[in-house]
Design brief:
The protein is mainly β.
Amino acid sequence: MRFRLFLIPFFLLPLVLQAQFTPGLNKTLGLEMHAGFIYEHKPQISHLIQHHPVGFRITYDKKVYGSNSWEQRYNFPDQGMTFVYMDYRNPALGKTLALIPHINFYLRGKREAKGQLNFKMGFGAGYTTTKYHPETNNQNNVISTDLTGAVLFQFGYQYKLSERMALTTSVSVTHFSNGSMKKPNSGINMFSNNTGLTYMIKYKPTAYTYSNEPKIETKPIGGSVTLSGGAHESIKIGSGARPFFVLSGLVDKQLNHKSRMGLVVEWFYSASLEDEVKYDEENKGKDTNRIGLALSHELVINQYSVMMQAGYYIYDPYYPFQKIYLRLGLRRYITDRFYASCGVKSHSAKAEAMEFAVGYRIK
């Protein structure tokens, strides 16, 4: 289980390591202090919200100036790593340490301006010092594993104080969850305000490279086939993680250099649901297979893409969850055709599974 969770940052690490630890100039170090609150996404976690969590974050980024076409396409984003330290100020929750590879997009067209609005997103892994235990810590119904997945979304503002130093302020949400690999797993959604400074090391004045990128003249219909899998635990705590598989077929259309929109048909099999239905007197003997139909959007960033999907079960006799499901994932293209991905599938605020996948792009 721990090994699976550490696969999450693997998909971003090659990009981050290439950017951070190869010889180069204009890399930044940042330190931010943060304070915030845990969002009560369900009444069952209200007893855990006692104080405002506090902590700090250390960021390390590489600047880009347009040596690759995708850099200008996304307004010269930073690529980097965020280290998070979070003290929940509650002995039942303890503390969380996380390492999150991220990409930071700038929203203002004029990148040379001193003031910049930005949006950061990242996917990584976290370590929680205090987890659920049926005897010694049964109040913690949000995290039951030492290691968790970590997702970061942030809106911020950066103001350049000098050529090398900048003031940063932002609001962010950081999510920690094990993707129902072990129950209980309500997850933690931490909203915070962050303030700090960044300092550029190995500084050399560098101009941004602007060029006219040709539009995509033909926008063909394409598609892909994906096999996903993993393990998750059923509703009953302590029942143990059981395997699941998802087979997906996608038909999509290239809209521009950044985006593909498509339609997905997929089949779901879960061994844990099969175990559940054996002991469910009301539903004993029901088919636990499910078929879903989903809308898909793929945001392409160099070798990577962010997958966002919203689906509906068109066949679901057992009906263990809501009819509508959501998926957020990160895909890495190993070649032009083959890819690997990881993501979380959920029903509203309830995660069903953390999925790991391989696939083949047809066109």
